Amino acid sequence: MSDEDDRLARGQARLKEITGQSGEKVMEAMAEIAPDFARYIFEFGYGDIYSRPGLDLRTRMLATVAGLVALGHAERELEVHIGSALNVGASRDEVVEVIMQMALYAGFPAALDALYIAKRVFTARGLMPDAK
């Protein structure tokens, strides 16, 4: 197995660990337009960066949520990564606190948008208190 194949396999395994899904959907979605891009996501993003020692996955995912909030224009990715943060042990309250913290650096509109996205994720997972 080549180093690239090893990175790809490691990245696909790490993505499944984080999201609970295989990378096949990403590969299929990118196949027609940029198949190499999907491979780069797995090899570099998940095979190299997310697989590094030094931070546990919970911490990495909370940092990722913060970064995506700061971008202010990554709704789909933020939704996926909020769910991923929950998958690897972050609590609903921790996700909310990270988003609120980002209001200081990314601005209130970015944090507000992110809170609405988080609410969607929490609702889908049954993590919102029942409305009365």
Describe the structure.
- The protein has 132 residues and is an all-alpha fold.
- The protein contains 7 helices and no strands.
- Helix 1 (3-19) crosses helix 3, helix 4 (57-71) runs parallel beside helix 6 and helix 6 (92-106) runs antiparallel to helix 7 (108-124).
- The radius of gyration is 16 Å and the shape is globular.
- The termini are far apart.
- The model has no long low-confidence stretch (mean pLDDT 92).
User: Helix proportion of residues, in percent?
Assistant: over 70%
Q: What is the count of β-strands?
A: 0
Give the distance, in angstroms, between the N- and C-terminal Cα atoms.
Answer: 57 Å
Q: Summarize the helix and strand pattern as letters.
A: HHHHHHH
The oligomeric state of the chains shown is single chain
What is the overall shape? globular
Poorly predicted parts:
none
Counting H and I runs of at least 4 residues, what is the number of helices? 7
Decide which structural class fits the backbone.
mainly alpha
The proportion of residues in beta strands is under 5%
Name the average pLDDT: 92
- Rg, nearest Å: 16 Å
Please outline the major beta sheet.
Answer: none
